[in-house]
Design a protein that fits this description.
Homotetramer. Residues 10-232 form the YjeF N-terminal domain. K(+) binds at residues 63, 145, 178. The protein has helices at 7-18, 23-46, 62-76, 93-101, 130-139, 158-166, 205-208, 210-215, 240-246, 273-285, 297-303, 332-343, 353-360, 380-387, 394-405, 440-453, 458-477, 484-489, 491-500, and strands at 2-4, 53-58, 80-85, 105-108, 142-146, 171-174, 196-200, 218-222, 235-237, 261-265, 289-293, 308-310, 321-324, 348-350, 374-376, 408-411, 415-419, 425-429. The protein is an alpha/beta fold. It has 2 domains: 2-237, YjeF N-terminal domain (Rossmann fold, 3-Layer(aba) Sandwich), CATH 3.40.50.10260; 253-500, UDP-N-acetylmuramoyl-L-alanine:D-glutamate ligase (3-Layer(aba) Sandwich). The strands form 3 sheets. Strands 12-11-10-13-14-15-16-17-18 form a 9-stranded mixed β-sheet, sandwiched between helices. Strand 17 and strand 18 (425-429) form a beta hairpin. Helix 10 (273-285) packs across helix 16 (440-453). It is elongated. It starts with a strand and ends with a helix. The structure holds ligand NAX and potassium ion. The site of ligand NAX has 30 residues, from helix 1, helix 2 and helix 3.
Length: 503
């Protein structure tokens, strides 16, 4: 599992570390890491380091300081470095002196009332003008983004925004791509799109949430001594090694019952698709047995002969967990199905129509045994019905909902957020949005139900299912749109890929 820490946590860790290590040492370490990554990118994109042109976009804080020091290190490798100071009076003094001493060129730019880089302020000897800054930026082989870091507030100022728009070269972001909200990953205006981001100590929310994850490019975490001091992460990400360790596979002593039997209550005679998809996902996710209970039993049996299918949940037989909701409808028959599942005292993944039913009829909650795990897996619309609009801070909303319902809540989306009632949060950022297709959520329900039946902790069940689901979508799509059936068919290949994956 990889941790993600908030800006406040990182600052607190820095304060603790500074009692042992001078602040300037931390900045050298950070800047050295940035310079190494910049050299790698130059080799990759330009084929050389010495003689290449690097432009540093430098803001008012220590983020700019990191960039300036990195520029000084790059000068020693023969790189031509231009620093564009966006807040000339507040540029990091030691970093600026170091860059100048190393022979870097410094251009000063200030924002104008009309926005853009129309006004420039002379700052140092040489061709200091907004035009010069624009020109070097546009001609750079690599741009280092030191505009703003952990203390970023609001959108980029106009001068920075105008320069960012001109960049065509690869961008190396220092700590995080400027213009992205550090806490939520939200992008509401112009923002840097980084090829790579070098961050310090640990991942921050903006590297893994929403548009921020895309704008960050590849993220390298550099341990400058902070990692030990960071404490419990605010969020976590599952990595391939977690999935490989967690995904249940049969052992020598297992039989079809010992691995957990999952019950599927989904679909209807008129809409059997959901039944087929949820059941199929459960069939592919784990070995053992899947029972289907509902009006689509005949169709399910035709599709998945290995499934034991019955007409009603009451006749389903013994299961260890339920996957309930997709396609059951929001009328009385669906309500009856949900009542049965909630009364059963078994773990359940509650999705789709079952979530709508819960939002319409509060008395359904009373049927639940509070000691038994529940996973709610809404999309944003269902979440809103159940708990109110998600808002910009998805993590905070989902965490509150999980505590409120005393359930694991998985909010679907390009960034899937999974919160446990005790406050733990997992996020899964899909690399693409191929899973945004009708029926894809049904597949996820089946995966979660199967993992619950195997006895996995419900938070881990939901998290592992989300990661596998996104990976199956990528594998199936390979660059072209897919339907949920293709996603479902790719589930075994995705499991195989994780089971073979190296750490
Ligand atoms: N926290 C740590 O342990 C370390 C931090 N370091 C660096 O220090 C950075 C944090 O430094 P600071 O706290 O000085 O803050 P920043 O460098 O993030 O910038 C803060 C200043 O930028 C301005 N600003 C805020 N939002 C802006 C926006 N949207 N557009 C333009 N300007 C804006 C404000 O005037 C603010 O004072 C980190 O991101 C990292 O790069 C590293 O030097 C190493 C260690
Ligand atoms: K930055």
């Amino acid at each position: 599992m990889r941790g993600v820490w908030t800006a406040d946590q990182v600052r607190a860790a820095e304060e603790r570390l500074i009692e042992q290590v001078p602040e300037s040492t931390l900045m050298y370490r950070a800047a050295f890491g940035v310079a190494v990554a910049a050299s790698d990118l130059l080799r990759e994109h330009v084929g050389r380091v010495s003689g290449a042109r690097v432009v540093l976009l430098v803001g008012a804080g220590s983020n700019g300081g990191d960039a300036l020091w990195a520029g000084a290190f790059l000068r020693r490798r023969g790189v031509r470095v231009d620093a564009v100071l966006l807040a000339p009076d507040r540029a990091h003094p030691a970093g600026l002196a170091a860059l100048r001493a190393a022979g870097g060129r410094v251009l000063a730019v200030t924002g104008s009332r009309s926005g853009g880089v129309a006004s420039a302020e002379s700052h140092s000897a040489g061709s200091d003008s907004a035009e010069a800054a624009a020109e070097v930026t546009a001609r750079a082989d690599l741009v280092v983004d030191g505009i703003v870091g952990l203390s970023a507030r609001g959108p980029l100022r106009p001068a920075a925004a105008a320069l960012v728009e001109l960049v065509t070269a690869p961008v190396l972001a220092v700590d995080l791509p400027s213009g992205v909200d550090p806490a939520t990953g939200e992008v509401t205006g112009p923002a840097v799109s980084a090829t790579r981001t070098v961050t310090f100590g640990g991942l921050k929310p903006c590297h893994v949430l929403g548009a921020g994850a895309i704008h960050s490019g590849r993220v390298d975490v550099l341990d400058i001594g902070l990692t030990e001091e960071l404490g419990t992460p605010e969020l976590s990400l599952l990595d391939p090694a977690d999935l490989r360790r967690n995904w249940p596979v049969p052992g020598p002593q297992d039989d079809k019952y010992s691995q957990g039997v999952v019950g599927v209550a989904a679909g209807s005679a008129v809409y059997p698709g959901a039944a087929i998809l949820v059941t199929g996902a459960a069939v592919h996710a784990t070995s053992g047995m899947v029972r289907y209970a509902g009006p689509a039993a005949d169709v399910v049996r035709d599709h998945w002969p290995e499934v034991v299918a019955t007409g009603t949940v009451a006749d389903a037989g013994r299961v260890q967990a339920w996957s309930v909701g997709p396609g059951i409808g929001t009328g009385e028959s669906g309500r009856e199905v949900l009542r049965h599942v909630l009364r059963s005292g078994l773990p359940a993944c509650v999705d789709a129509d079952a979530i709508t039913l819960l939002s319409q009829d509060e008395t359904l909650w009373d049927l639940r045994d509070p000691g038994v795990p529940l996973v709610l897996s809404p999309h944003a619309g269902e979440f809103a019905r159940l708990f109110g609009p998600v808002g910009a801070d998805r993590v905070a909303s989902v965490r509150r909902a999980a505590a409120h319902f005393d359930a694991v809540v998985l909010l679907k989306g390009n960034t899937t957020v999974i919160a446990a009632p005790d406050g733990r949060v997992l996020v899964n950022q899909a690399r693409a949005s191929w899973a945004a297709t009708a029926g894809s959520g049904d597949v996820l329900s089946g995966l979660i139900g199967a993992l619950l039946a195997s006895g996995l902790d419900p938070w881990a069940a939901a998290g592992n299912a989300a990661l596998l689901h996104a990976s199956a979508a990528d594998l199936a799509a390979r660059g072209a749109p897919i339907g949920a059936s293709a996603l479902l068919a790719a589930v075994p290949a995705a499991i195989r890929r994780f089971r073979r994956a190296e750490d």
